[in-house]
Amino acid sequence: ICTIIIYIIIAPKIKKESPGPVFFSQTRVGKNGRKFKIYKFRSMTVNSEEKGARLAAKGDARITPIGNILRNIHFDELPQLWNVIKGDMSFVGYRPERKFFIDQIMEHDPNYELLYNMRPGLFSMATLYNGYTDTMDKMLERLHMDLEYLYNHSLWLDIKIIFLTAISIISGKKF
Question: I need a surface site. Which of 4, 25, 29, 173 has the fewest CB within 10 A?
């Protein structure tokens, strides 16, 4: 309810700039290896992965101009609050990934499956300190940070991650 005004502002901008739906959903893997639909504001052109799954990199031509702004301020992820309400995600945890990329990560480090012991999160220590992942090296670094969070998570650490993420977004830090 608190974010409805943001939705009212963002939705027409997405529709005006690029034909297609305002929201984007994608299957991700969460707690206990269960698949779920994650929701986001659409930040890429429709059918941006018609040639197969691939990570988005800086300057990716598939990202729309409004999508670039939404990604920079992380507002593309606001609809994931619905995933939190539904219980697919928590506020803090590892960022959920697609099975396609999980399989690639597990070729290098099978410990990814340990993450299935917790819910994925809207906020992540790995995203805060490692940014978005666009290479396998960054994916493996994110995995190690997520495992560190799994072994050491606490209410205090969750509060710290949420606070530092909010400060980073407000200050304009790029992830």
Answer: 4
